[in-house]
What we know:
Blueprint lengths: L12 H21 L1 E5 L10 E5 L6 H8 L5 E5 L9 H7 L2 E3 L6 H12 L3 E4 L16 H9 L4 E7 L3 H8 L5 E6 L13 H16 L11 H8 L6
Parallel strand pairs: 1-7, 2-5, 2-6, 3-4, 3-5
Antiparallel strand pairs: 6-7
GO biological process, one term: phosphatidic acid biosynthetic process
Keywords: Acyltransferase, Transferase
InterPro entries: Plipid/glycerol_acylTrfase (IPR002123)
Amino acid sequence: METASPAGYSLSTARLTVRGLVRGVGRLAYRLLARPEVHGLENVPPRGPYLIAFNHSSIFDPPFLITHWPAAPEVLAEADLWQEKGRKMWVRLYGGIPIHRGQYDRRALEHTLAALRAGARLMIAPEGRVNSGLGLLQGRLGLGWILSQAPVPVVPVGITGSTLEFMRKLRAGERPRVILRIGRALESVPVDSRDKAAMQRRVDTVMAHIAALLPPEERGFYTEMAEGVLSGQTGS
């Protein structure tokens, strides 16, 4: 698999070409098989670096986001995906930054920071695991740590319609509706990596803005904070 080296970040011409092909094929497949909608494209920064923080309801969220973002994003993903039957081919084709969940993965974090320094648009699911469409789980500290080292803007994204019901409807011959809502970028705020409480507050702020892009029944842990965002009581 091709990933960034800890000393820097670069993608070969071949990798860029393959990513373009994967995105093109993916967009076509969505248009033929589903009813994709994208709202809020005006909120996408014209250039990187920035983070794309999204809710993780199912395995179908990342491919939808990858194929419908204006420019090919870099992906921070669980290392097991590079070996998982049924998905490893696509993961290896597109490439990304593998991270080992539940442990301090210094190499992955170095890759992540190198990518951001090089101006990448980096996808991250702050929940750190799939919520199975049962509502948002509290975001983990990984996002907070990244922001403590690279205070870049964060673009909140809410995806609906991509739960496991998506595949059930496809198999039934339906064209499921899947929606990508892009919120306004949250400006970078310095966070002290020694202050876990401050990092968690920053993560929760980002998650609240994601929740505000979702229907009430999918906001989960962030239901109350989302109401604050929607009423203008919670800033960036």
